[in-house]
Amino acid sequence: MAHGPATLADGWGKYISRWVFTTNHKDIGTLYLWFSFAMFIMGGAFAMIIRAELFQPGMQLIKPEFFNQMTTMHGLVMVFGAIMPAFVGLANWLIPMMIGAPDMALPRMNNLSFWILPFAFAILTSTLFMEGGGPNFGWTFYAPLSTTYAPDTVNYFIFGVHIMGASSIMGSINIIATVMNMRAPGMTYMKMPLFVWTWVITAFLLVAVMPVLAGAVTMMLMDINFGTSFFDAAGGGDPVLFQHVFWFFGHPEVYIIILPAFGVVSQIIPTFSRKPLFGYSSMVYATAAIAFLSFVVWAHHMFTVGMPIAGELYFMYATMLIAVPTGVKVFNWITTMYRGSLTFETPMLFSIAFVILFTFGGFTGMMLSIAAADMQYHDTYFVVAHFHYVMVAGAVFSGTAAVYYWLPKWCGKMYNETMGKVQFWIAFIGFNITFMPQHFLGLAGMPRRYADYGLQFADWNMVSSIGAFMYGGAQILFLFNVIRTIGWGKPTDDPQVWEGAEGLEWTLPTPAPYHTFATPPEVK
Amino acid sequence: MPARPKNRMLLVKLTALAAAMFVFAIFVLPPLYDLFCEITGIGGKTDGAYTAVAVEVDTSRDIEVQFVATNNATMPWDFYPIEERVIVHPGESRAVAFYAHNRTGQDMLGQAIPNVLPNNAADYFHKTECFCFNNQPLAAGESAELDLVFIVDPDLPASVNTVTLSYTMFDITDRTAVQVSQVQ
Ligand code: HEM
Ligand SMILES: [Cu+2]
Fold this sequence. Notes:
The complex is a heterodimer of chains A (524) and B (184).
Chain A: H1 12-21, H2 25-53, H3 64-99, H4 107-126, H5 154-181, H6 194-225, H7 239-273, H8 280-293, H9 309-337, H10 346-369, H11 371-377, H12 381-411, E1 413-414, H13 417-443, H14 458-488, E2 490-491
Antiparallel strand pairs in A: 1-2
Helix pairs in contact in A: 2-3, 2-4, 2-14, 3-5, 3-7, 3-12, 4-5, 5-6, 6-7, 6-8, 7-9, 7-10, 7-12, 8-9, 9-10, 10-12, 10-13, 12-13, 12-14, 13-14
Chain B: H1 3-40, E1 63-71, E2 78-81, E3 85-88, E4 93-101, E5 108-117, E6 125-130, E7 136-138, E8 143-152, E9 162-171, H2 177-183
Bound molecules: protoporphyrin IX containing FE and copper (II) ion.
């Protein structure tokens, strides 16, 4: 084992420094994935606290101040700590193997971009234990809630956001450089697997908008500490400006979350349909179109701020336009399955659920994009239901599918299929029990982000909480299944793992060796 | 080019893009937003001090100007317009006043922020003199009449017959402690 990675057998010191100083894309991918799972558990725990409090009307378990910190931290941790790092982890593991590169283009920066992330979240989480409590202004941190009325710990929050922004930007630059410069001979752009395509486009989105987020928190910092008035009307500023800056980042951000998920299911569905992906090039163009449109629709989050009618109409139509390329994608996934010889292994189940539930979330998005109707839906549980259908049944389901799909390739062991399927059904049913009723609550007028609610909302809230506990339980099963696989799974050395799998990563030995494609493969 | 220098080049370019977007967010977006609001009149922001030009008073039109005064958040002052509405002819210069009283036992500093509705009237509502151009120091228990002189532009769109001018009074005592001592 001269050049292999240090294992526990080499002693703790060597083993720990392997992980701390690693520049290997597979190691860093693993670190990202475990970190993201840890954040997923933490954000999930916050969600359980929220749903436990909302189980019944009235205040039972926690104080309203703490409730606000929980909703805020849940959103921040899930978006920036769980979903985004999960996909960066997948990118690290898979992109070099998919395009025939020996490693990422900038391995040392890769190490840095991961290792600053735990610090960002340690800082953010530590505010919960400080005087004044953690951030309590919602994950969208609208000024003046996050400036004039913020707890004193807001400066830690700002620092944390800066660090994770820097991490994302470095990660994205690395991915772009890898894809543009490190492809194996013959791997032209239009031969790249869709996961790679969706990730480069995502990386460009990230490089363009994470600095805008950094700008938003920097302006907050200056308003709070240095007497400027970007967002303060008393000094000639405008709180509505904050919302424009935030959503100029925020809407592309939701596509940053979903595009790599599109990539994942575009890999999995053809495998278990035993057919090539239908409409490959239209998938690429649709992804690019969605990314472009995501820059020009941000104010659909702000229909109620008092925009002039021309603005309302423009943002309404532009938002509806996004449904066209999105529809192309859904059509292609379904057509790929049509007349395929389908089998329903766990990754496929999660992918099919993704297609169905994501489309449902897209439909509620269309409802929200109607400016006149959004006056009623805005800031109700209907919006909460909408974005959990696209983010949980979208991004999280696809991430789960990805782990099951590539886990055998990563560690050379098969997961337990029965347990995977049980997890899927608990997650699928639990998810719908949680979030379907939230549509009804929202339409009936229940506002989001409150610790208590009127009695008329009691029944559906109880149902929703029960579903949430179910969904949470499914994640414990997931963790158990993954650990069981790595430790005690049935060994396999079939390079292809799945009968219908295509692509360079499946030509490598199973488990994937520590260094792969030291000499680039020939792509025909 | 071999991969390493190519990667460096790309790293430099993309970092520059990220830096440019950061600069864009802080130094371009806010002025752009203000400019956009000014051009379109959205947000009801009024201009600064206006130097009156000789125009003919349009006695054929009566415009009702309403005044609204609001305290922001925890501002404890009494603050209201002495006349709630006046009728003016476009082109005519008119002086009105607001009343402000600091009921607390503490010297305070206020700042009034104006806003005009409907939006398309904002560009045609000129203030030649306004207390809102400066901040307002009021000693403990002190009260003051705050002056405003305005002209409604004869070019005010024909569809507008009523203009509402609203002021929100902000407490800026803490923020500019230095300024307070200068003003007094
Ligand atoms: C056809 C596609 C979509 C349309 C038309 C759409 C439309 C909208 C609209 C109009 C709102 C604002 C609702 C309101 O606040 O009143 C909204 C909120 C939201 N959407 Fe979507 N959406 C779509 C897809 C997505 C996707 C793919 C994601 C993320 C993966 C997403 C994530 C969100 C989030 C996070 C919010 C709420 C933000 C907040 O206020 O906290 N949406 N959507
Ligand atoms: Cu959006």
